[in-house]
Write a structure and sequence with these properties.
Layout lengths: L3 H13 L4 H10 L5 H10 L31 E3 L4 E2 L3 E6 L5 H14 L14 E5 L4 H14 L8 E3 L15 H9 L4 E5 L1 H4 L10 H14 L2 E7 L15 H6 L2 E6 L6 E9 L8 E12 L4 E9 L18 H11 L2 E2 H8 L3 H13 L3 E5 L5 E5 L1 H13 L2
Amino acid sequence: MTTTTEIMENLKDAADSGRNWQEVLTSLRKQNLVDPNDYQYILDTFEYTPAPKALNKLFAVTKMTKKGRENLAPRKYLLKRLEIEEGTLALLCAAGNSGKTMLIQHLALSVNCGLPFLGAYPVASGRVLHLDMENNMKQIERRYERLANGLDIKSFDIDKVSLEGGRLDSPENFKTIEQDLVQLCTGYNFVVIDSLKAVSEADENTAQIEFICKVFKRLAEKANCAILLVHHKGKGKSDSRQSGRGHSSIYDSVDVQIDINHEGNTNEYVLECAKNRDGSYFQDISYHLEDTGEFWPEQNCSAGLKLTALPEVEKDSTNSPKEKKESPEVVILRHLAEKNLKQSDLYTIIKGERAQFSKMIEELLQKEFISEKRGAQNARIFSLTEQGKNFMAWSDESNS
């Protein structure tokens, strides 16, 4: 016979594993492993609440509570002027031959050496990792040398990584890609990836490209670094918020999108904010690119390259929404502050792709910045809420 204590321990194990302990006890009795007197005693007195099952490793639960402004973690920016922040993924979009690589290498040097970006905007100095599949090693070294000369840098220390064994999301790398990248990038403050298409096997025009974008987004958080992903502009995009080539999931995945605009054969360029997930859109930055130093005939180029910010145009004191760069969401709120509008009227103002517009409206409703009622012929009519007014006041104060 099994002792009462042993039987009760068996019943606890059975309950923890999800089995019915009464059925287990009956089974033990039928096997003559329980004394008949003990059986009735155990049946009458046994009480046990199973321990909660541990969640699958796929999930991580974090308890969220009201903290108050003073207890929120401070935001740590690599470059505040471009809203590039620690633990986030930024996208740099530009057409071919528009200075993308020169800009990112200039920024990489600025971070590595603690020098102002474009000679004007403070950066947080730190370690830099450059993952490049677009350019060969000779081109990268030559650009870094010339940019360093343009900044009057005597020495720098940037790690360049080449990709061996296929693309990042190729079948042989698929299972371990994320943990390999986290191991590689941990300890770096700034990681440059050039370019999205060059490191991925996925068709960028389909939702397949979302996999690698989400990997990069999680990588930024896990490795606690700022990642700048280089991408090419699309042709004939009607929606300025999705100027990058390919599927909309690319735009949706990133925290910040920065566009380089360059027209004609001039040496002047403009950086424009096409997205900022968690803050105000930054004002455009204009900069100038010029050759400096003597000509190197053996390299067929000048000794230096210098990128310099042009003087910023002061904001209009009237703070007119027509002359101020604002996100589409803020434009919607600003128009609703004047009067209630139908969905069709708002779309006429914002334009762009209807799917993105509809998503924007739903997000504003979820945030309770706007409210909705139904009008004639079931038309959706939106108005600004008190919470929306408070957000607008905060946004105006932040940009003043």
